[in-house]
Amino acid sequence: MPTTLAPRTAHPYRDLDVIDARAPRFNQAAIGVLSLVAVVTGLWPILALLAAQLAIGLRFGRRYCVVCVMYFEWVQPRFGEGKIEDSRPPRFANMIGLVVLGSASVAYAIGLTGLGAGLGLLVATLALLAAATGLCVGCEVYRHGARLRGIKAHAFDRVELAEMADAFDVAGHAAPGNGDLVVAFSHPLCTDCRDLIAELRGDGRHVLTVDVRARPELARKYGVSVVPTAVAVAPDGSVSVRLAG
After folding, report:
1. How much is the pLDDT for 28?
2. Domain spanning 156-244: which superfamily?
């Protein structure tokens, strides 16, 4: 008998702040292979088409991204939904890909074949690396940059617990112990968020969660650019250690 797949938890065209983690890797595989073909065969307009497709997807959404639609309409229904993650890092990586692919296309068009080939091979290498290993260089650039922006802009060294009290979801938490409580900024569809919160509560930590989808103003105030972000907080609201994010 065929295996019944679990229903999607995140709608691919509506829940745009999260994404099935397999979708970016599928997209990277397609970009990597086609970029390599373009450089090897000299058919550089393929690079321009890839850049145009990235631009259309970034501007108008996944429904207008051919590779995205292939994944969500053909691959995902057959193999099931993967881990759900924050969509901002892969989106930023796509922006970088758009810039490099566009630059490669311009270089080819004006006769700088060597530069165009080099940029095309750079995209192919990084995209295939991400597809094969999950190591997305653009995503890591985003995460590191987001941490720096958050610390610099918001001095996230304390949490106003009284101000945030109405935002906390405390269902299922362990009883407070002798240590600090944990404030976790999460998204209800984020797999890593659920795993982290379950792990912390399993360790007996008192965890208060803030849903960044429902309370985006708190995410902005505290410089939360990636989820999950979790901090241990003393009774006076001062942050003693950053646990995630």
Report:
1. 96
2. Glutaredoxin (3.40.30.10)
